[in-house]
Specification:
Blueprint: H1 8-23, E1 28-33, H2 41-46, H3 54-61, E2 66-73, H4 74-78, E3 82-83, E4 88-89, H5 90-103, E5 108-114, H6 120-130, E6 136-138, H7 149-152, E7 170-174, H8 182-195, E8 200-205, H9 218-226, E9 234-236, H10 238-244, E10 249-251, H11 252-269, H12 278-281, H13 293-317, H14 322-335, H15 345-355, E11 365-370, E12 374-379, H16 386-398, H17 410-423, H18 433-446, H19 448-455, E13 464-467, H20 473-482, E14 485-488
Parallel strand pairs: 1-7, 1-8, 2-5, 2-7, 5-6, 13-14
Antiparallel strand pairs: 3-4, 9-10, 11-12, 11-13
Helix pairs in contact: 1-3, 8-11, 9-13, 9-14, 13-14, 16-18, 18-19
GO molecular function: peptidase activity
Organism: Enterococcus ratti
Pfam families: DUF1846, DUF1846_C
């Protein structure tokens, strides 16, 4: 039984009530949704008990009053920006998001292309959407945004961009990632609503940092670790303290841009803003869902270590800079953490050290922690890679199957290897996790022992694992789909430059 530190039902109830209270002040509320709308795994990890679809459940409570705009920056489409958690490009993620939201019965208004200037790949994406009957709006970049308030709030600024027709009192504005233009889209709509004589408002729904827990609480520090590449830093909201004499936590970008955002809203409405601080703009009630602070603190510390491994691996791959690595190391020191404080790290590396020969290639070993603090390991062999081996070993342990009993016929596995090399002309015949899982599912049809092991796959959800080498993208995605939280040491499995 997993220890719970967060009451998701209480949070959803309080959050929906608070949003509705904010809506009552306006004809229409534009609600900027930060973070992930679907599958918020970071929140699930740092707040044990948080349901990763909590935001969806929240929107379902509001669905009769809400519709959704999805923003994407044209430049992110053009350079094929990847969402790390899914391993897909932003344009593909928008298609995935639309499908998921529709599956929950939520209304998708349109997709908004921000900072659009006729980019070729973006044109193709717009055509794809429109030919599937999805409405698309294109907003151009406004020069000197957001500092030149006079120009921005004029016919030469927001006035040049299209007004997005909406029908519900709550308009949720979301995106596949940061820098997609959510805020600019909200402000654009406020401008046009004001021109039409409508009383529209803006609020921000950002789960982290949590404004009403201490600045140096591990939960808020875990947010800094998660955004280390964005250079986000948590700070005391000085505007909030000056206005109310109360301490609230926000982050540098929101605090730095608050004065100009406040001026833009006041220029649009012709009234003094009701918001005295960036915290005022938020509708975040997640802190009120915490029921066991010690559980949340420990979960947050483990997340910081996971982010440490992710950062040093991303640096090795060349996707982030050295400043991000130095920052994550400082965060680790600030909280007093070592990489070995993650339970699966030492067993994986100790086993690899015992297996090490004179070969220059590191030994690929993965260790996974199962219930009751049991650590199971698996290593790469001539037959299958470490990810496949550790998952087979784990389900055998959970099913109480002896090591001596094979789950999969060696003849079947050899036939799959032969197909890879002879029919598919692959130079890598070692079986991947996905290939072994398919073999296990087929074996389960005729082999009762394999069936028992197959049924244990669901119990791997939420398990922690660590690899002594960087896991390839396909295996990493398969592990994530199983719910296994994998980290890796920053070493490539071989000297090969392409087959990794």
């Amino acid at each position: 039984m997993k220890t719970i530190g967060f009451d998701s039902a209480k949070y959803i109830e309080e959050q929906s009530t608070y949003i509705l209270e904010r809506v009552n002040h306006y004809d229409k509320l534009y609600l900027e949704f930060g973070g992930k709308l679907v599958d918020d795994k970071h929140a699930k990890r740092v707040l044990p008990g948080f349901e990763e679809d909590a935001k969806i459940k929240l929107l379902q409570k509001l669905k009769n009053q809400a519709e959704i705009l999805i923003c994407v920056y044209a430049g992110d489409i053009e350079r094929n920006k990847i969402r790390g958690d899914y391993g897909i490009t932003y344009d593909m993620d928008i298609l995935r998001l639309i499908d998921e939201l529709r599956g929950y019965g939520l209304l998708i208004n349109s997709v908004v292309i921000t900072r659009y200037s006729g980019q070729p790949a973006t044109k193709v994406f717009v055509n794809k959407l429109e030919r599937r009957n999805i409405k698309v709006y294109k907003h151009t970049e406004i020069e000197d945004y957001p500092v030149n308030v006079e120009k921005i709030v004029s016919e030469d600024g927001f006035g040049k961009n299209e007004y997005i027709e909406t029908t519900k009192p709550i308009v949720v504005v979301t995106a596949p990632g940061p820098g997609s233009g959510k805020l600019a889209t909200c402000l654009n709509q406020l401008y046009h609503e004001s021109q039409k004589g409508q009383a529209a408002g803006y609020s921000k729904f950002e789960t982290f940092p949590v404004w009403n827990v201490p600045l140096k609480h591990p939960l808020n520090i875990a947010y800094e670790a998660a955004t280390v590449d964005l250079k986000d830093v948590n700070m005391i909201d000085s505007f909030h303290f000056d206005a109310y004499g109360k301490v609230a936590v926000n982050y540098n970008r929101d605090i730095e841009t608050f004065p100009v955002i406040k001026r833009i809203i006041e220029k649009i409405t012709g009234k003094e803003s009701v918001y005295l601080s960036p915290t005022d703009m938020g509708v975040n009630r997640v802190g009120f869902g915490i029921i066991e602070d010690e559980v949340v603190q420990e979960a947050s510390k483990q997340e910081i270590i996971r982010r440490y491994f992710q950062t040093i691996c991303d640096f090795k791959k060349g996707t982030i800079d050295e400043e991000s690595v130095n920052r994550i190391k400082l965060i680790m020191e600030e909280v007093g953490l070592q990489p070995e404080d993650r339970k699966v790290v030492r067993p994986a590396h100790n086993y690899a050290k015992n297996l090490q020969t004179s070969s220059h290639d590191p030994v690929a070993v993965i260790a996974i922690e199962l219930p009751d603090n049991i650590i199971i390991t698996g290593r790469t062999s001539s037959l299958m890679n470490a990810a496949a081996a550790v998952i087979l070993n784990a389900v055998k342990y959970l099913a109480h199957i002896s090591d001596e009993i094979p789950l999969l016929s060696p003849l079947v596995l050899e036939r799959i290897q032969g197909m890879k090399t002879m029919a598919l002309h692959s130079s890598m015949d070692v079986l991947s996790l996905n290939e072994v899982l398919i073999a296990l599912s087929i074996s389960a049809v005729t082999n009762p022992i394999a069936q028992v092991a197959y049924e244990k796959l669901a119990e791997l959800d939420g398990m922690q694992a660590h690899s002594t080498v960087m896991v390839n993208k396909n295996d990493e995605q398969s592990l994530k789909q199983l719910g296994v939280e994998i980290t890796s040491a920053p070493f490539y499995p071989s000297e090969n430059l392409f087959y990794q």
